[in-house]
Write a structure and sequence with these properties.
The chain is an all-alpha fold. Helix content is 86%, strand content 0%. The protein has one domain. The protein contains 8 helices and no strands.
Length: 174
């Protein structure tokens, strides 16, 4: 095993963990400041900035310091996958645990906010679809759990990471 192969995993996991910790810290700061982090991150999804940034620096470190200045496309795609999968997994588990075991009031606020939002758009939704679809949507919102929120965050971070990794891998490859 060469040093390049050996350094591949530690570098990518390091960037994934550091990024996930930053996301968790921002979540906690928003909560401590009296904001509902579930609502605030929907308005300003800071993951769109943090995830590509850490993918870029993680792949750049792999290329410049551990791979003799070479980054093949497959290495970039795999490295980025490890980074964004680590970010998504850690942050989703944290959000699930936070809501489930520490403060489920933020979930209740989130649900109430979304119900009010949907009720404000009732006329347009009923006109576009029908009353049954509107009622199903309301019921789905009422049944939202910590698991649903965590899964949504996980999938969102995967999508951001996938798109970012593809673009960044093409830019950084040599």
């Amino acid at each position: 095993m060469t040093s390049t192969q050996f350094r591949f995993w530690p570098v990518t996991v390091k960037y994934g963990v550091i990024s996930a910790i930053i996301i968790i810290i921002v979540f906690i700061i928003l909560f401590v400041l009296g904001q509902n982090p579930l609502l605030t991150t929907k308005k300003f999804p800071f993951g769109i900035i943090i995830i590509p940034l850490f993918i870029f620096f993680g792949l750049k470190e792999m290329r410049d310091y551990h791979n003799q200045g070479i980054l093949r496309l497959w290495q970039g795609l795999l490295g980025g996958l490890i980074i964004y999968l680590t970010i998504a997994l850690i942050s989703a588990i944290f959000i699930w645990a936070f809501i489930r075991y520490y403060n489920d009031a933020i979930l209740t606020d989130y649900i109430n906010f979304n119900i009010l939002n949907i009720e404000d758009k009732r006329a347009a939704l009923v006109e576009t679809y029908d009353e049954a679809t509107y009622q199903d949507l309301l019921q789905n919102i009422r049944e939202t759990t910590a698991y649903h929120i965590a899964l949504d965050e996980f999938i969102r971070k995967l999508l951001i990471g996938f798109i970012s990794t593809f673009i960044i891998s093409i830019v950084l490859r040599k």
